[in-house]
Automatic annotation (TrEMBL):
Entry membrane topology: Multi-pass membrane protein
PROSITE patterns: ABC_TM1
GO BP of this protein: transmembrane transport
Name the UniProt record assigns to this protein: Putative aldouronate transport system permease protein
Source taxon at top rank: Bacteria
Species, as recorded: Halolactibacillus miurensis
Domain ABC transmembrane type-1: residue ranges: 73-279
Length: 294
């Protein structure tokens, strides 16, 4: 076979892609370098992708004297797993129902679903509703309000619309019921879009701290990692990174708000970065399959 010649266009394309990679990775590498660099040295500026004076002080500041972090991490993992699983179950069931051509109320339900993407009741009505439902300081406050998302349902329904109807019709002729068709035909064929939406839900659950602040801060057992990190960052900014309760021996001028903020960013981001590579191959497929109808 003849070898393909390396043309000038290939060179330009290679340089362009290298620039894209550098631009994409540089902000994260810079954050990582600052989080591991001495705070006094960081204040000098000019720090790029490698720490000049390596130190664990910023992470010691966060973890030492904060006994709640381990429990908060476990709660964040629990709400992410349970919230993602229940959200996927609810979204796929509704999407499958809306994809059925014989569903009589397809139009009205779809209209109501889309309206929620543009109109919201607001924070105060939502707070009053959750309080009246008895969800304050309850683990279900992390699950029920995020159970259904109109965008996720529409994405899954669009994918299911691309599944040949002959598959479901043949299954019905063989005596399969709707739940059998849903679990044994629709779900296996929809794994790409399910993986994609699962990533959306997992990131949303993992990063959310505001619902803890509003609805669950009175219950220490329900505190999440993001909420605890937010409190640490808030205390650091108010004190100028100088002294906080239980951490004074680790600070002593070795940390500052910027360094603490970067360390918190790394702690909050790494778990999602560890999960994403396993879902990446489904991500683009889930968004593109079913987008073009033959």
């Amino acid at each position: 076979m003849k070898k393909k010649k390396f043309t000038a266009f290939d060179m330009v394309l290679l340089i362009f892609m290298l620039v894209v990679v550098v631009v994409t990775l540089y902000p994260f590498l810079n954050i990582l370098a600052i989080s591991f660099n001495d705070a006094t040295d960081t204040a000098r500026g000019g720090l790029h992708i490698f720490p000049r004076q390596f130190t664990w002080a910023n992470y010691e500041y966060i973890f030492n004297g904060n006994d709640r972090l381990l429990g908060a991490f476990g709660m964040s993992v629990l709400r992410t797993v349970v919230g993602t699983a229940t959200g996927i179950l609810a979204s796929t069931m509704l999407a499958y129902t809306l994809s059925r051509r014989d569903f009589v109320f397809n139009g009205p339900v779809s209209f109501i679903l889309v309206i929620t993407m543009f109109v919201s009741g607001g924070l105060i009505p939502e707070f009053l509703l959750i309080r009246e439902l008895g969800l304050m300081n309850n683990f279900l406050v992390y699950i029920l309000p995020m159970l259904l998302n109109a965008f996720n349902v529409i994405v899954i329904r669009s994918f299911m619309d691309g599944i040949p109807i002959a598959l479901t019709e043949s299954a019905k002729m063989d005596g399969a019921h709707d739940f059998t068709i849903f679990w044994k035909i629709i779900i296996p064929l929809s794994l790409p879009v399910i993986a994609t939406v699962s990533l959306f839900l997992a990131v949303g659950q993992w990063n959310n701290w505001f619902d803890t602040y509003l609805y669950a801060r009175a219950n220490e057992n329900l505190t999440t990692l993001q909420f605890e990190l937010m409190k640490i960052l808030d205390n650091t900014q108010m004190s100028g990174g100088d002294i906080t309760s239980g951490n004074a021996e680790y600070v002593a001028g070795r940390t500052n708000p910027q360094s603490i903020q970067m360390a918190i960013t790394i702690i909050a981001t790494v778990p999602i970065l560890m999960v994403y590579p396993f879902l990446q191959r489904y991500f683009v497929t889930g968004l593109t399959l079913g987008a073009v109808k033959s």
